[in-house]
Design a protein that fits this description.
298 residues
Length: 298
């Protein structure tokens, strides 16, 4: 059997974690991505969705997705970057890049009411600019029939109001820390919710209470690396390899095994983003062949 067939068989049979939100293009990972991916694979991570915040991120993530099996890219303008999304022709360039097959979603997009205006403008004007770009990004997602990855820090009601104007777009609210009522509203609209290492923090009882009301078929996990490292790594730079701790805590909240939560969240990610193909580490040295239907990375 050819290695490509073996890769495909392994992807179908192996239990693996999926990090649906990591910033591999972050300057904090400069020169370290191969090591980050190797540690991720050793920790049981099979797929990573690498999130973009601006045009430079999109180009960097496309390069990572093209050269590393199991890495997928998104395209979008983060709400904290709406004042400097790129050169004058950024809209046309973003549209062209978002058409690439490695792009699995439009994001990270949304509204941020936590940080002060990045351009020094008045708060109302800054939020209107965010909303305008958010709407443009959702229209792009609708046009390309791609899902959206949403930033909703201290802005969940406003984010849900904008999403309601684009009912054809399916979204995941990343790093969700909203209330159970806000979660129910998002779920009723057909969206997914994703949880980070925050769910492992001792004082995050409210986040765990919200996670408990999310049906297993609408939940995903993420690291938001290099941010929000879970316990016991809190305070250190976060990596996708740490996602197992988030998965374990979420499994406890739902009263299921870690393996069941691993399978469920990876299946949800596969369905939501349309993920397929070889997992992280494909193309490494192989031993044993595929005669038994199993392939082992060494």
């Amino acid at each position: 059997m050819l290695q490509g067939d073996c890769d495909a068989m392994k992807g179908k049979s192996e239990v693996f974690l999926t990090d649906t939100h990591a910033h591999l293009a972050s300057a904090r990972f400069a020169g370290e991505v191969p090591g980050v991916l190797a540690r991720s694979r050793e920790a049981g991570v099979g797929r990573i969705v690498s999130i973009s915040c601006d045009l430079d991120d999109v180009e960097a993530n496309l390069g990572l997705a093209a050269t590393h099996p199991g890495v997928f890219a998104t395209a979008g303008i983060h709400p904290c970057y709406v004042h400097e999304p790129g050169p004058a022709d950024w809209r046309e360039r973003l549209r062209n890049l978002a058409n690439r097959p490695e792009i699995v979603a439009i994001g990270e997009i949304g509204l941020d009411y936590y940080h002060p205006p990045e351009d020094g403008s008045e708060t109302t004007a800054w939020r209107l600019l965010q909303e305008s770009i958010f709407e443009e990004m959702l229209q792009l997602a609708e046009n390309l029939r791609l899902p959206a990855v949403i930033h909703s820090r201290e802005s969940t009601p406003a984010v849900l109001a904008v999403l309601a104007r684009f009912p054809a777009v399916r979204a995941v609210l990343h790093c969700f820390t909203g209330t159970p009522a806000e979660a129910e509203q998002a779920l009723e609209a057909g969206h997914f919710l994703s949880f980070t290492g925050v769910i492992t923090y001792p004082k995050a009882d409210d986040v765990r209470a919200t996670a408990a009301v999310v049906p297993l078929d609408r939940i995903m996990i993420e690291t938001d690396a290099p941010y929000l490292a879970p316990v016991p790594f809190r305070g250190k730079p976060c990596e996708p390899a740490m996602i197992r701790h988030t998965c374990q805590r979420l499994a406890e909240v739902h009263g299921v095994t870690t393996e069941e939560m691993t399978i469920t969240t990876s299946h949800n990610a596969e369905s939501f983003f349309g993920l397929s193909g070889p997992l992280l580490g494909a193309g490494a040295a192989w031993e044993g062949g595929c005669e038994s239907g199993e392939c082992v990375i060494v």
